[in-house]
Write a structure and sequence with these properties.
This protein has 305 residues and is an alpha/beta fold. The protein is built from ten helices and 13 strands. It has one domain: TIM Barrel (Alpha-Beta Barrel), CATH 3.20.20.
C-alpha cells in the first residue's frame, strides 16, 4: 500500500525541536542535576514500558501491565533510486502470558509496497498465535506536524487492512498538539486508538516539556506520555487530569551501555506489566540482540517523546 511522496513527511525529533534539541544533547554529556520537585525515572515505579532492540528485558518485566515491544523496522531505500529494504524483523514473537503486548514497528518511510504491508500483518498474526496477549499494532514514525494529514491517510489505509481484533497505536511528537490544525488531529482521532507522546531525546528529558504537554488536551485522543528510564521528570501541574490521559510508558535502556536508547520516540520509545518473571523473559534477550547493532545505529537519534 503505497503513499506517494509521504516519505518527505519524515522528520527527526531532534529537528522537530531544533531550538531545544541542542540543549538536550549538550545536557546528555554529563549527569544533570535533579531540580527541586523533580526525580529520576525509576522503571519499577511504572506499569507500561517500551522494549527496544538491544535492550535485555529485565527479570521483573513479566509483572508489567503493558509492553510495547519492537518487532522490526520498515527502512529507507538503499541509495537514490535503489530498492527498498522492506520490513526487517528484529525479534521473534514473545510468549509472555501476563502483560498485554503491542507489536511496535519502527517506520522510516510511508511508501509501503504490498509486500511490506503483508509482512507486517503476517508478523502480527504470528505474534498473536504465539500465546501472548497481543492487543495491537503500534507504528513508530516521526511525522512532521505539517504532514499529519498525509500521515493520517496512510494510517487509514493501514487500519482498513488490520484485523478488527487488533487496536492501532502510534507514537507522537510533543508539538503535534501545540501546532497541528484541528482537522488533522480530528482525522488522526478517527483512525488510531491511542498516541504515545515522546518527551525525551537519547537518555535526556527534553527541556520545556511543560509548555507542550499543557496542550495535549487538543489531541482529542487517548494518550500516554513516554518517559526515558533514568531521565529527570517532573509532571506538569494538571497533566494527569487532562482529558484522554491514560498513564505513562517508560522507555527501558540498557543499563550497561552508555549509548542512547533507540527507536520510536527519538530514541524512544518510545512500557510495566504482570505475570511471572520467567514468562516475560521469553521476550528473549538473544532475539533482542539480533540485528541490534544496526538498529542501534539507525535509532540512536530517534524519537523520545
Amino acid at each position: 500500500m503505497g503513499v506517494e511522496a509521504q516519505v518527505l513527511l519524515v522528520t527527526r525529533r531532534a529537528a522537530l525541536l531544533a531550538g531545544i534539541g541542542a540543549l538536550a544533547v549538550l545536557g546528555g554529556c554529563r549527569p544533570a542535576a535533579v531540580p527541586q520537585g523533580a526525580e529520576r525515572v525509576r522503571a519499577r515505579d511504572y506499569q507500561a514500558f517500551f522494549l527496544w532492540a538491544g535492550v535485555a528485558p529485565p527479570a521483573w518485566l513479566g509483572e508489567a501491565r503493558t509492553v510495547y515491544a519492537l518487532a522490526g523496522e520498515v527502512r529507507h531505500r538503499s541509495g537514490a533510486g535503489g530498492p527498498a529494504e522492506g520490513f526487517v524483523p528484529l525479534r521473534s514473537a514473545p510468549h509472555a502470558k501476563g502483560p498485554e503486548v503491542w507489536m511496535s514497528v519502527r517506520v522510516e518511510r510511508l511508501d509501503w509496497e504490498e509486500s511490506v504491508t503483508a509482512a507486517v500483518l503476517s508478523t502480527l498474526a504470528r505474534w498473536a498465535a504465539a500465546g501472548g496477549r497481543v492487543v495491537g499494532l503500534q507504528i513508530d514514525f516521526d511525522a512532521a506536524t505539517h504532514g499529519l494529514e498525509g500521515y493520517a491517510a496512510f494510517l487509514e489505509a493501514l487500519r482498513a487492512r488490520l484485523p478488527r481484533r487488533f487496536k492501532l497505536s502510534i507514537t507522537g511528537l510533543m508539538d503535534w498538539s501545540a501546532g497541528a490544525p484541528r482537522a488533522a488531529l480530528a482525522r488522526l482521532a478517527g483512525v488510531v486508538d491511542e498516541i504515545v507522546v515522546q518527551t525525551y531525546q537519547g537518555r535526556t528529558t527534553l527541556p520545556g516539556t511543560g509548555a507542550y504537554l499543557a496542550t495535549l488536551g487538543r489531541l482529542g485522543i487517548r494518550f500516554r506520555v513516554a518517559l526515558v528510564e533514568g531521565g529527570v521528570w517532573q509532571a506538569p501541574a494538571g497533566l494527569e487530569r487532562t482529558p484522554g490521559f491514560s498513564g505513562y510508558v517508560v522507555f527501558l535502556v540498557d543499563q550497561g551501555s552508555p549509548s542512547s536508547p533507540g527507536g520510536a520516540a527519538g530514541t524512544t520509545r518510545k512500557p510495566a506489566q504482570s505475570s511471572s518473571p520467567a514468562a516475560m523473559t521469553r521476550l528473549r534477550p538473544e532475539s533482542l540482540a539480533r540485528n541490534s547493532a544496526s538498529s542501534a545505529a539507525r535509532s540512536a537519534s530517534r524519537r523520545s517523546a
